[in-house]
Input
Amino acid sequence: MKLLQWKDAYSMGEIEIDKQHKGLFDLSNEIYKLVEAGVDDNEHFRELFMALNDYSIEHFIYEEMYIQEEGFPGLEEHIGQHLKFNDKLKELCVGIDKETHIKDIGEFVATWLVEHVINEDMKYKKFIETKK
Output
């Protein structure tokens, strides 16, 4: 698992989306810090993952409405990626008391966030920029 560092290259050029992305990075980093500190409190992690789930849903709705307003042709595919993230997070968290390791969940979240912003969100950023 890795600590996420916000970079200007991740900016979408839309203030609220950038703020929300930074918030998601912060939640991922909270998980990282607890894992690194050796915290083994499933209840604490459960609360953190529920907060991450709630925040990601709020962000996804905002982002999807934004790119719909901009006429982004890849909207349906983008929504599908968001749904897959939420399904995978739920699947991992349901097993938190079983064989799923907190570190594995944190690794999934950190990796997905960076890859999604760099690879997928940049598609709508480029589309919007070409419209101007």
